From TrEMBL:
It is a multi-pass membrane protein. Its main location: membrane. It holds the Pfam family BPD_transp_1. The chain crosses the membrane at residues 32-52, 95-116, 128-147, 213-238, 250-268. It is found in: Cell membrane. The lineage of its organism: Bacteria, Pseudomonadati, Pseudomonadota, Betaproteobacteria, Burkholderiales. It comes from Mesopusillimonas faecipullorum. Keywords: Cell membrane, Membrane, Transmembrane, Transmembrane helix, Transport. It comes from the Bacteria. Residues 88-268 form the ABC transmembrane type-1 domain. The keyword Transmembrane helix applies. This is ABC transporter permease.
Length: 279
């Protein structure tokens, strides 16, 4: 059963993959021109930052403490201090836990909605309602119910990440090639075998896309969530720099958050592209 279904599935995939010429003529996303265009955009952003903080403000303005020169100097000093890496590690751990919990909840719910129309009709209005509520709106409730510490942070990150995973998983189920399911049925596959051999492999790309979207949302929500009485993390570190009025360090942390978020998105984007090319 398993070898035949796998072989048939591959054939169905090859049948709908399109002409080879379309794949061969596609330009790589990471071409030199695209990289140069991205660097030009970053340079323009840096110039705007420099003008807004080092040129246009008055000499005694507070904005000058956020200038690129001071921020980069503070960044160099912070990189030499292991404290920064400790806060980064704590934040990344929270992101990982939130994503794992969101996947454990979101993928089964997405499968349920995609496979069972009655479940979709019953659950979709509630999910759409909850999805439109900002995760940060739950912060006071999370603290009152779960207390301070990591627990409310995990809850808020999971709540933020679960919706794109649910929606993309259910969309992937609906877009499965019917030929795959017919092939499994003709081979007398059970529902469990069809789920594991056909449905789940066929929706991995959609789950990865949902995970990438979830990472973007979680990374934005993370910093305010880490202001809920925790003693470590990038959000806590930003509050600490504000309280110490170390504004150049605060701006350096903003740069660190942007770089880490970019790297996380880049890694997931490459993973999605590799999966699409492979399958």
């Amino acid at each position: 059963m398993s070898s035949e279904v796998t072989h048939g599935t591959s054939g169905a995939q090859l049948a709908v993959s399109g002409p080879p010429s379309a794949v061969q003529t596609a330009k790589p996303a990471g071409s030199l021109s695209a990289v140069l265009a991205g660097l030009v955009g970053l340079a323009g952003l840096f110039v705007l930052w420099w003008l807004a903080t080092a040129v246009l403000p008055a000499p005694d303005s507070l904005a000058r403490q956020f200038s690129p020169v001071q921020a980069l100097q503070s960044l160099v000093q912070m990189v030499r201090d292991p404290e920064l890496f400790w806060h980064v590690a704590v934040s990344l751990k929270r992101v990982l836990v939130g994503l794992v919990l969101a996947l454990l909840i979101g993928v089964p719910l997405g499968l349920l909605i995609g496979l069972w129309r009655k479940a979709e009709a019953t659950l979709s209005p509630s999910f759409q309602f909850l999805r439109m509520i900002s995760p940060l709106s739950w912060m006071p409730i999370a603290v009152m119910v779960l207390g301070v510490g990591d627990a409310p942070v995990y809850f808020l990150l999971t709540f933020a990440a679960v919706w794109p995973i649910v929606l993309n998983t259910s969309a992937g189920v609906r877009q499965l090639d019917p030929a795959w399911l017919q092939l499994a049925s003709s081979l007398a596959a059970t529902r469990w075998e069809t789920l594991w051999r056909v449905t789940l492999p066929g929706i991995v790309g959609h789950v990865l896309t949902g995970t990438r979207l979830a990472v973007g949302i979680v990374w934005i929500v993370l910093v305010p969530c880490e202001m809920l009485g925790v003693s470590a993390g990038l959000g806590y570190f930003i509050l600490d720099t504000r309280d110490r009025m170390a504004y150049s360090e605060l701006m350096a942390l903003v740069i660190v958050i942007g770089i880490l978020g970019f790297l996380l998105d880049y890694a997931l984007r490459k993973l999605c592209q590799r999966w699409a090319v492979r399958y």
